[in-house]
Amino acid sequence: MTRGRPPKPTRLKALTGNPGKRPLNSHEPRPEPAMPECPPQLSPIARQEWIRITAELSKLNLVTHLDRGALATYCGAYALWAEAMEQIQKYGMMVKSPTGYPIQSPYLAIVNRQAEIMMRVSSEFGFTPASRSRLSALPPDQLPLLDLAMDEYDEEKAGNGS
Q1: Interatomic CA distance for residues 102 and 93, integer angstroms
Q2: What torsion do the CA atoms of 103, 108, 110, 111 make, to the nearest 10 degrees?
Q3: Confidence of residue 135 (pLDDT cuts 50, 70, 90)
Q4: What is the full DSSP assignment across the chain?
Q5: CA pseudo-torsion sign 125, 127, 36, 32
Q6: What pLDDT is recorded for position 123?
């Protein structure tokens, strides 16, 4: 059984003004923005997507070395999705079974499954319009201000004995 929405990272709560007024996690890890290395296992299509997506995330300071696995999952799913889409375009959504009856292309199941994976990871990184509407990215020159605000919050919390 699911337990509701996953918690929003403290940095994102601070950026949005903590609309729920819930206590911020002052002990949440704050990894430095950094460009992770592209895994060598990725296919050429996945590598192209890696380069494209990490460049965009880097502009927003939303990528760290810790994101490598999630980004590799997204890029790998993207590559499989793209390859399956090519096969659907080539052979169509319906193919003939060994007995000659029309059946749904097996590539359609691959497309659907990889799209699910991509959407799940996309929402974590803010790749979709809906997930972006819940984010508020500061320009790179203002990121130190966010860190100062988080430090002030930590000091205030420590002063209150919480």
Answers
A1: 10
A2: 180
A3: low
A4: ---SSPPPPHHHHHHTT-TT-PPP-TTS--PPP--PPPPTTS-HHHHHHHHHHHHHHHHTT---GGGHHHHHHHHHHHHHHHHHHHHHHHH-SEEE-TTS-EEE-HHHHHHHHHHHHHHHHHHHHT-SHHHHHT--PPPGGGHHHHHHHHHHHHHHHHHTT-
A5: negative
A6: 87
**Residue whose entry in the numeric block shows the structure tokens 């299509």:** 45
Mean pLDDT calculated for residue range 98-118? 97
* pTM as predicted: 0.72
Give the rounded percent of residues in the chain with a pLDDT score beyond 70. 73
Q: To which residue do tokens 């059946």 refer? A: 103
Cα 41 → chain centroid:
19
